[in-house]
Each structure stands twice: as C-alpha cells, then as structure tokens.
Amino acid sequence: MKHTLFPHQLDDIEAGLEFSPLALWHVPGSGKSASAVFIAKANDCDFVIAIVPTTAVYVIADEVEKWAPGEWDVQVWRKKGDVPLTHTTQKIFAIVPWSLLSITVAADQLRQLRPAMLWVDEVHFGKNAESKRGKALWGGIAAPAGLVEVAERLLFTSGTPMPNGRVSELYGLCRTFGDIPRDMTLWQHKRKNGMMTQQFVGRRRIWKEHGAKRDFIAGLRKKHKDRGDWRRISKDELSAIVGLPPRRWKLVPEQPTLGFLREYRAALARTARERDIKDVEAWSVVRRMIAEAKVPSCISYISDLLESGAEKVLVFAHHTSVIDALLEGLTGDYGPIVVLDGRTNELGRRQFSESFNNGSDVRIAIGQIQAAGTALTLHANGACRDVVFAEGTPVPGDLAQAADRIHRIGQPNSCIAHLMVMRETIEDSILRAVFTKLEDIEALVGDRAVEIA
C-alpha cells in the first residue's frame, strides 16, 4: 500500500527504519497516523502500544484498520481492567488513552508488557515530567522505569511543536534522546548549562532563569534536524506536496451594547475583589459571560455564511451553555445539526464526523474545542471550508489544531477561520496575545500560521 502514501510519509517510514527514538512534528492533517502505522509494520512489530488523547482512541483504531487491515488485533484499553497482565504471542496493536497513565496500577501493568514499539501521539500531553502521567511515560531518577525505557522502539508524534523555548517541557524528551544524561535532574542541567543565575532581591539570594535556554533550544532543534531523528513538515511544505490551498484567519469584531458593558465591568470588579483576575476560576466566570453575550451575533453570522453559499460550516465553542444556545438558535432552519462535546459518548463521537462528512443534509457541526479539536477530519471532501469560533481560547496550539480540522489532506478549497471577538473586553486583549504567540510559532517552524483578513 505504499503507493497510497505521499512522499513525506515514505520519508517518515525510512526514518522509522533508521532511527529509534524518532519524533515527527508535522502540522495537523499531514497523515502522521498513517506514517506511524507503516513504521510499525515496516519494523515487523508484533506488539504495539499507542498512547493517544482520550477523544482519539477510536479514530486511531479506525486508522490502524484502514492502513493495515488484518495486520494486528486492534484493541482499545480504556481502563485498568482492560490491560492484560502478560502479553501473548498474538500480534496486538493496543490503543491507550493518556488518562490511563495517571492510574498507577495501570501504568505499572503497561510497563511490565514491554512493547516492541511505543507510539506516543500528541507527546506534548506529557510535557510535565513530574506529573503522574509524565513519570509513567518518562520515568525518573528515583522513580520506576518509564514506558520509554522498556519499549524496544520509540515514536513520538505531535501537531503542536514542543520545541518552543521551555526546557522544562522538553526534559523527558531530551533524556530519551540522550541530550540530557538520565541521571541528571532538570535543575542540575540548567545550572550546568548556564540557564540559571543568582540574583539578590534585598538580602535574599534567588535563582532566576537565564536567556541561555534559547541557545540550548536552538541548538537542540538544529542538531536533531541535521541528524534526521526530528522531522518537521510545515504547512507550506505540505501545501506544496499535496496541493493544499491556503488558510486564513478573519477576526470578526462585535461592538458590545452599553447594557452588556455595565454588567461586564461590574462582574470584572466583583471578581477582582474576590480573587486575582489571573486566577483560572475567576477568568472562567468572565469568559463565559462574554461568550454567552456573543451567541446572537454568532447565530446571525453563521446564518449569513450559509445563506451566501457555504455548503457546510464547522463551529467551535468552549462552554456547554454556549453550545446549547447555538444549537437552539440554529435548529430548524438548516436541517439536522451534529454536536460533539464532553457529554458525547463514544458512539456519538464516531457518528459525529461520519454524519458531517457524508450527510448531505447535515450542514452545521458544533464541537467543543477540547473534545473535537484534535484527531478528526471534518472538511467533508471540500464541502466545508469555513470554521467559526464562537469563542476563542488562550492556548494558541488549541486554536490552530481546531482550525486544522478542515485544513488538511483532502481539502481542495481555501479555508477561512472566523474568530468572533467582543471589543472593549479582556477577551480582545487576550486574543491579540494569542495571535502574537501564533506569529512566534510561525517564526519558529516556518509556517504562515496567521493571516488576518
């Protein structure tokens, strides 16, 4: 089946035969899952464990069956009772959600199985090496051996580039690739490489991170790129390979009413008195208030897109109250609407993409950014070229990942990501910062990440 693959995927397979560990940092929609399956097949791995996001377990299972039918017995291990105590001689491709690594008993059982290949998808989920899942994956100096230390072959994939300037987020990966000695702590590594300096604050002497970490990250990227065990296909490169048309971002500002501004400022003042506005819970209160106020204009905007010729529209939101309000406001005028959020069961998840991609009468899909923003293809063979964000997210990687649900292999049309923004609110300032971060990512990985209409 190699003839069905693109040139960059064939290069991935060649690298997978040569290197272990290997990291693929390709942009979303570039076919990393297919590359991973063929790497396991090319290395004749009889037992594969894939660590994937919880929302993607059955999507990955379908990918394995699609690209290598009958090669393995594909199993999904969602809870600790699903993990066998021993591995039989049967060829197994086990798919494990990231959440299972946080259960100590399940992590211990996985370590005992010693897979022929460990594939870690969305490896940035394990960037905190001190968390339960981080210790289960990477191990530690005083902790039991991690999964990466007992597997014969290692493959890491992510559509969100991890080499982004934070050494702490790369600590586990660097130990695995040999860039940091396994017996060296992160603190020792930073001190040895001049990333920490002593400063006096009054009479107190404190340690502060130094800019030398940027040089370390830059050297790390260059070394692994030259060696070939870190591969990256940018959006521009993918466009040239597969003929993927461009995607652009369009900010859609809404001027708040005087009534809303009074309520908003009162809520902001009340929240600031109760706790620091930087607190996550405090920001959530204000964020939900802004999002709910934008619902009527979002409904009107989506209706305008459909009335002006759009075949299908993908809509993203964060809060379930906003999703419910959008569903209520759009129901009845444009046929059935499919929804995917944290309340959707596994059967509903699988039916969501099938109905939107193949149902001619389904013109609107509403997804929660965290639940539907990864591991799904939702361009409906080119029928969907517009994605509307009813509310944004302060995490630029989540925003880009969600937008790439329609901008991926198989999309013949140019795409527009419409981001609804409420002026004169904290959301406006935060989303400007998000776009600045996206521009930083653009400079880092060489993509045209942001193009504001």
CATH H-level homologous superfamily name of the largest domain = Tandem AAA-ATPase domain
β-strand percent reads 15-25%
Structure summary, number of beta strands: 15
Number of helices: 17
Structural class: alpha/beta
CATH C-level name of the largest domain: Alpha Beta
Alpha carbon gap, first and last residue: 41 Å
What is the helix fraction of residues, given as a range?
A: 40-55%
Shape field: globular
Trace the largest sheet across and list its strands: 3-4-2-5-6-1-9
Task: Explain the overall architecture.
The mean pLDDT is 86. The protein is built from 17 helices and 15 strands. It has two domains: 2-233, 3-Layer(aba) Sandwich (Rossmann fold), CATH 3.40.50; 241-445, 3-Layer(aba) Sandwich (Rossmann fold), CATH 3.40.50.300. Helix content is 44%, strand content 18%. It has 453 residues and is α/β, with parallel strands linked by helices.
